[in-house]
Amino acid sequence: MQKIMIIGRPNVGKSSLFNRLARQRIAITSDVSGTTRDTNKTEIEIYDKTCFLIDSGGLDESSELFKNIREKTLKEAKEADIILFMVDGKMMPQDEDKKIVYSLMRLKIPIFLVINKIDSRNDEKRSFEFNEFGIKDSFAISVSHNTGIEELKDAIYPLLKDNLKPDETEFLEDFLENFDDSGEFVESDKNIKVGIIGRVNVGKSSLLNALVKDERSVVSSVAGTTIDPVNETFIYNDKTIEFVDTAGIRRRGKIEGIEKFALNRTEQILENSDIALLILDSSEDLTELDERIAGLAAKFELGVIIVLNKWENKGEKDFDQISLLIRDKFKFLSYAPIISVSALQGKRVHKIYDLILEIYANFTKKLKTSRLNEVIKEATINHPIPHDKGKIVKIYYCVQFGFNPPKIALIMNRPRSLHFSYKRYLMNKIRENFDLTGVPLVLIPRSKNKDENDEEKK
């Protein structure tokens, strides 16, 4: 698996970027220079591609310890596939940074210059001073404000290999046997599994009680009351919905004792769920932890309903304002509907049932193949696929090969040349023509045959 390594002097924000890209707080961050001394490594996904992300110790020579850290970091850099060289945008370019850059350039590894802490127009103007480093690809970002991160990911994405597994072609052939003569997916009756997730004390247990119309889950103002998952089934319109109230998630630094096991169990529940009810406390501001929990729903490719709870004293204007904030914060859940409820008063809770059935129908939907290919063809005519180094990139046809959520294979001559931004464009076109409210859409470019795959590598 490919490796992305974050390198830079101490206190430029490497660990914060590491945590942001990993969507969880793994590396310890602080204002103390040299907090990170050993390398942290974790597996991450950049859109639909997987790689290892490495957070290195700061490059410093102020003591014997830091000299050893520097030597170790530069040695490990030789094994990286992509280097993110990070600098502090609040400062003017440093001679020490230039020396490091020139030594890294000799490795002949793709290097992206990441200028962090760009929080104002003055910072933006100062960032142009870093052009003297001679790195072609540079990105002005602010990890703390989550700006510029998506542009950085878009640039990294084409350099990553796809994650097609050897047995996916076999799965495609086996999967087609699950369609009947009418082209509809044949699925046995099963419970719709719904995981209820959110921070501590946002009202998950109260919502479960309101949904199943019973005091099934213990409710308390004490944060972290629910530790074990609470299961309850409810029949609605002849469909059996299985709700699971999971333990509230705290900031990693505040997770203690048995709650660590509860967090792991929450992830296991989501792995086996169809839909996640993401509960937010409408009486409080959105937090980074809310974003991280939302990332779990995206990670497991679930159908999602965003539930604004504690809506006792708010109105339509509040809903519009908060919805805009959510859409800005949770761009990766742009497909998820937002609903406001008051679990305490039972207001609008009943609307969640219909949303669950609608989203589950979309989650298991078979898209009509002929119409799907028409949409893709129209999209490529209106906006042709960019060439790859002068070579034509084309999509022969597409076929749905999976459900839960819908998965579509794009059969192409050069699958690795399809940039994520164009794939996002195709996703939007598909959503315009098919109702996929509440569910993610997976598009996987693949070669038509082995010969074409070998040709692409040349």
UniProtKB/TrEMBL annotation:
Indicate which residues the UniProt annotation says bind GTP 1. Answer: 8-15, 55-59, 116-119
**Which of this chain's residues are annotated to bind GTP 2?**
G198, R199, V200, N201, V202, G203, K204, S205, D245, T246, A247, G248, I249
The EngA-type G domain is annotated at: 2-164, 192-364
What keywords is this UniProt entry annotated with? Answer: GTP-binding, Nucleotide-binding, Repeat, Ribosome biogenesis
GO terms (molecular function) for this protein are: GTP binding; ribosome binding
Pfam family of this protein, just one?
A: KH_dom-like
Q: Which GO terms describe its biological process?
A: ribosome biogenesis
Tell me how this protein assembles: Associates with the 50S ribosomal subunit.
Looking up HAMAP family in the UniProt record yields: GTPase_Der
For this chain, the family text in UniProt reads:
Belongs to the TRAFAC class TrmE-Era-EngA-EngB-Septin-like GTPase superfamily. EngA (Der) GTPase family.
The function of this protein is: GTPase that plays an essential role in the late steps of ribosome biogenesis.
Q: What is this protein called?
A: GTPase Der
